Amino acid sequence: MIAAVLAAAAALLASDETLTAIRGIRVGHHTLAERPTGCTVILADGGAVAGVAQRGAAPGTRETDLLRGSTKSAASIDDVDRIDAVMLSGGSAYGLDAATGVMRWLDEHRAGRDASAARVPIVASAVLIDLWVGGKPRIRPGGDCGYRAAAAATNAPVREGTVGAGAGATVGKLSGRARAMKGGIGSAIIVLPNGLQVGAIVAVNPLGDVIDPQTGRVVAGVRRADGSLADARTLLRTGATMAPPAAGENTTIGVVATNARLTKADANRVAHMADSGYARAISPIHTLADGDTIFALATGRWTGDADAETIGALAADAMADAIVRAGTTATSAAGIPAARDLKR
After folding, report:
1. Which of 327, 91, 29, 315 is nearest to 206 (CA)?
2. If you write DSSP's letter for every residue of 126-150 in order, what string do you get?
């Protein structure tokens, strides 16, 4: 009986090809039905060492200064470098309030760093702008949305597509909103034979197109008048007149995580290397209209040896895979078509 239970658990783990295959990582979404928007929380049970990379020109974030830099030795991995959760949210700057709901949920469950008088949960956050989607900009994620996402967090395979922080995400706005397509949430993981795991989750909401690095083909992006894919790379090379992008109306935000042990300095290096995944799977990327951010988490539950450069390279691959997953799993919303709606 015990053997059967263990075999079933192993089969379930093997079937999870998303971020939650990493032990100690849970993901929860909350989607607002009144308008396509929502939030997604990544919980690190027991905390995780964290870093961040921000290359977009218009970011909306919380606690990123806490994650940058470290003077600690390569062998150090102490609690001051650890955070408890990352919140990804729609709703522009209003969505930063969702992190307070996660903090409240963590406080109720006695998570966080011991600060003498109380335990203080640390929740980093990044937001994307989706206020124009659905025509009800006053509906946006707040503290209650974050609390509900945390309460719903699970280690089951991540739900992908038009959900959580990806509910109002769009892609391909180089020729204006009217030619955009749906973006969404995607997740992927790479597992090596030695047990090293590196995974990613991302809310894909860029100005540019989603590109499959394996084929070079556009998955979702700017459309022609007939609804077919135009390919932003071709438009840029032909010098076509394009709608001026509004600053901050885009942004791709995500998390990479590993079961390896990293210092804060290492985690920052991994986050910066993972950003290469954005460049592989989105074109153009890091424009004045994007606030792109990546967080890196290291749970340290795997006792094997792996250097930050190897983990960073795998994180870039996982992130690119997750971006493509977001494009292919998204469903139409608010009259905006998704990749699965296209006739190919």
Report:
1. 327
2. EE---TTTTS-TT----HHHHHHHH
Whether 13 maps to a domain, the answer reads no
- For the stretch 193-209, pLDDT in tens is 999 999 999 999 999 99
What does the alpha-carbon distance between residue 188 and residue 317 come to, in Å, rounded to a whole number? Answer: 9
The set of residues, in sequence order, having a beta carbon less than 8 Å from that of 323 and lying 6+ positions away, is 186, 202, 204, 210, 252, 277, 278, 281, 282
Domain that holds residue 72: 18-341
Whole-number Å distance between alpha carbons of 15 and 80: 34
State the pairing for strand pair 184-191/181-182: unpaired
12 within some domain: no
Instruction: List the CATH number of the domain containing 93.
Output: 3.60.70.12
Q: Count structural domains, the chain.
A: 1
Pairing of strands 119-120, 113-114: antiparallel
**Contact present, 210 and 204 (Cβ < 8 Å):** yes
Lookup result for tokens 């795991």: 197
Q: What is the DSSP letter of 15?
A: H
- Best CA proximity match to 316, nearest among 271, 251, 285: 271
Helices marked H in 170-307 — which ranges? 232-238, 264-281
SS3 89: strand
CA–CA separation, 234 and 241 (whole Å) = 12
- Please indicate, yes or no, if residue 6 is contained in any of the structural domains: no
For residue 313, with 0-12 CB atoms within 10 Å meaning exposed, 13-18 middle and 19 or more buried, which class applies? middle
Looking at the domain assignment, is residue 121 inside a domain? yes
CA–CA gap between residue 339 and residue 183 (Å, rounded): 9
What does DSSP say about strands 209-211 and 282-283: parallel, antiparallel, or unpaired?
antiparallel
What would the pLDDT profile of 266-312 be if each residue is shown by its tens digit? 999 999 999 999 999 999 998 888 889 999 999 999 999 999 999 99
